Amino acid sequence: MANELRFDGRVAIVTGAGGGLGRAHALLLASRGAKVIVNDLGGSMHGGGKNSAAADSVVEEIKAAGGEAAANYDSVEEGGRIVQAALDHFGRIDIVINNAGILRDVSFHKMTEEDWDLIYRVHVLGSFRVTHAAWPHLRDQGYGRIVMTASAAGIYGNFGQANYSMAKLGLVGFANTLALEGKKRNVLVNTIAPLAGSRLTETVLPKEIIDNLKPDYVSPLCAYLVHESCTDNGGLFEVGGGFFAKLRWERAEGATLRLGRPFTVEQIAARWGEISGFEKASHPANIAESMQPVMTNLEAGPSKGGNDLIDVDLALGY
Ligand code: NAI
């Protein structure tokens, strides 16, 4: 195909690529010329056991289709070994897709510290360890593309998933800062919040829905994010079932009270509409933009007159 986006010469690590979304990502990248480390611990969806069969079968699929891949069976908690496998097999590393994941769903009042900790270790610590080991290689070569895998459960909350929600939104914050730190060296970091039928979702979604949420429907957006032509950085994307969209923060108009005197609960109550209403929303995209109203208020300085809200608005030019 003309203008096909290809990955020839690129080496990709896809964690948790023995099934579900990771498998689909790995197959797509390999079909476009990437050499792929197919990592999978091969355990249960709740984090128990291990088995090399899952990663092996995806490597076989890739090879049967004429692609290049090697299996790795380490847990993402041993991220350094996964990166070493990429260097040993293919001599470099360009792309990291942090995808491995498990669930320990239980309502919070029944959640144990082990449920909390295990989810943190696989999703957050695992993504940290793999990315941290790859980072110096990506920086030094002045090229890298990284994807984190978040979830709607983290963005919006989901009953029974306090541990998973914590981990998944934690990855968004992690990616936000990596995106800033990596940018100068052309190491770009984005996050997807996918929706797909897999063993993680087949127990909670009806079969007819699962059948229309193919992991293959998610991988093209993920692959675009790790392609050299994509310059998006620090983005968060919802993707699944044929829908693709970027998300961003929205901030209410907000209220500003002049400094130099105590603020009262009643003032907050009086301004609640501006503090919490989104009719005049803005979309701060970085810390400087987010701090802008505070800086304006600091520049205006302490109030000289009485504690009058109208006086505040006039002084600040609102
Ligand atoms: P899946 O269970 O089919 O695939 C996850 C893979 O990760 C499995 O093959 C598993 O063996 C592997 N894995 C688990 N722990 C590992 C570890 N410590 N080290 C290495 N590999 C490990 O699930 P699915 O749905 O494909 O999930 C992929 C990612 O997408 C996960 O991070 C999940 O949380 C996330 N996600 C999936 C959604 C969906 O609708 N399927 C929704 C939101 C997020």
TrEMBL record:
Residues 10-203 form the Ketoreductase domain. Coiled coil: none annotated. It comes from the Bacteria. It is found in: Peroxisome. Belongs to the short-chain dehydrogenases/reductases (SDR) family. This is Ethanolamine permease. It comes from Chondromyces crocatus. The chain holds residues 1 to 318 of 1019 of the full protein.
